[in-house]
Specification:
By secondary structure, the chain is of the alpha/beta class. The chain contains 18 helices and 7 strands. A 7-stranded mixed beta sheet has the order 1-7-6-5-4-3-2. Helix 2 runs parallel beside helix 9. The protein starts with a helix and ends in a 32-residue tail after the last helix.
Length: 459
């Protein structure tokens, strides 16, 4: 049993919250419009008092009127009395000498003393002023985040928005593709010693960044043919709901290179498919990885994956609908994944057509594909890594197909003169590959030294 002194010390440590943490808690307060639009406000630690007040009947002024409202005449007399110096307090014990007070205030009125006074101000007070005057957007670290998504037609797994959850039309195709065997994960290439090394590495991980840097490469294998990005906010995308949510910031993701898509299409759909203003970063993202360390939250990772998947589904759908009627085929073209405590999970998100039940707006529905305990045994690891690598390849095929179709529709929509000019530009320069070179997408281009170029005589 703990001693009274130990209990007191523990209580004191809990009460001594760091100043930075206090300011962070204030900064996480969401703007008022976020709470106004929620159909249900869940009472959590992140729920700010203004959110509760705004959902309560009546204002603070109506519920707790200021006493001065009902004693205006007395207040007028008090103000006149105060202007003439107020009551004489010189007979009180320890009352400071008036002359000393005047000297002190005169010294503090100089510019140098004012700057010293500002520097000596309480850090907590400064942080509170900055935090309360600039509320930030809401992230996935609250149950209200899931409620907000659901209110805007974005349903994460387990929300229960329908009695019969809808799966994508190509569910069987995706499952079959995920289970396709891979030679790189056969027992001869990924041995028991390799698996044991993976388990040891997983046990040493303490943060999500370590998981992404050390664990993920073992699961992914060779991704040299993929175009990836890591851990930056998607500030260039249009809001998915009402603008009150923070920008998505996945731990790891894959997409296409901007040069693969016609410039006119990129300009037209930039706020749907291009997450960053940097031209050398991936676009049309449709594969995401969200990691959490041992002390991280699995529900938060799932909500982040849900948010990522909805953004990706919207981007793919906008490209598929470019220069054609909007199509809702019920298929999924995106995969999201989470890793927490040695467990890998894969999800997919598809768009459902607008209905009267959905207020005539499309719905984004997240479905769980499967899950694997990667540190359980080598067979479980092989199944999970196989599904992950197959999903990477499958999502690349989906975005490549969408890009190719959109480019073709764009070319067909141009006038004949512009089309001929564009075709001439693409065929004016011919590249000759050296003998024996591999022309697959994973091969590096060989040098062109002229030894393999044959110049035919003019006839």
């Amino acid at each position: 049993m703990s001693s009274p002194s130990a209990l007191e010390a523990s209580r004191r440590r809990r009460n001594e919250e760091p100043l930075s943490q206090a300011s962070q808690n204030l900064t996480r307060r969401s703007p008022p419009e976020y709470w106004d639009n929620l159909s249900t406000v869940w009472l959590t630690r992140a729920t700010s008092p203004p959110a509760i007040d705004e959902k309560s009947p009546g204002t603070a002024e109506e519920l707790y009127p200021h006493p001065a409202k009902y004693c205006k005449e007395d207040l007028r007399v008090i103000k006149i009395f105060a202007r003439h110096g107020g009551p004489d307090l010189s007979d009180l014990r320890n009352y400071p000498d008036l002359q000393l007070q005047i000297s002190y205030h005169q010294s503090m009125s100089t510019p140098g003393s004012l700057s010293r006074k500002r520097r000596a101000g309480s850090p907590l007070e400064n942080n509170i002023d900055k935090a309360t005057t600039k509320p930030s957007n809401t992230s996935a670290y609250s149950r209200n985040f899931q409620q907000h998504l659901a209110d805007h037609g974005i349903y994460c797994t387990g929300y229960g928005h329908r009695s019969d959850p809808t799966k994508p039309s190509n569910w069987g195709e995706i499952q079959e593709r995920l289970a396709k065997p891979r030679r790189s994960l056969s027992p001869s290439r990924f041995s028991e010693s390799d698996f044991e090394a993976f388990v040891r590495a997983d046990e040493q991980m303490s943060t999500e960044k370590q998981v992404t840097a050390k664990i993920l490469p073992i699961i992914e294998g060779d991704t040299s043919t993929q175009f990836r990005g890591t851990d930056y906010p998607f500030t260039n995308l249009a809001p998915l709901t009402d603008g009150s949510l923070a920008s998505a910031k996945p731990d790891h993701f894959f997409g296409a290179h901007p040069k693969d898509l016609t410039l006119d299409i990129r300009k037209a759909l930039k706020d749907k498919i291009i997450p960053s203003t940097a031209e050398d970063r991936p676009m049309l993202l449709n594969f995401f990885f969200e990691a959490k360390g041992p002390s991280g939250s699995l529900p938060v990772a799932s909500l982040q994956a849900c948010y990522d998947g909805a953004l990706a589904a919207r981007g793919i759908h906008s490209l598929q609908s470019y220069k054609k009627d909007t199509v809702y085929d019920g298929n999924a073209y995106t995969v999201t994944s989470t890793y927490h405590g040695g467990t890998l999970r894969l999800f997919t998100t598809h768009i459902a057509a607008p209905t009267a039940e959905s207020d005539n707006r499309p719905e984004y529905i997240m479905s769980k594909l499967d899950g694997w305990y990667m540190t359980g045994n080598s067979e479980s690891f092989r199944k999970g890594a196989t599904a992950y690598r197959n999903a990477l390849e499958w999502t690349k095929e989906q975005r490549d197909m969408a890009i190719r179709s959109a480019n073709e529709r764009h070319m067909q929509s141009l006038p004949q003169v512009e089309t001929d000019s564009a075709l001439k530009e693409t065929t004016s320069v011919q590249t000759v590959a050296p003998k024996g070179s591999n022309t697959s997408e994973s091969a590096e281009p060989g040098p062109l030294d002229g030894s393999d170029v044959k110049i035919r005589p003019y006839r």
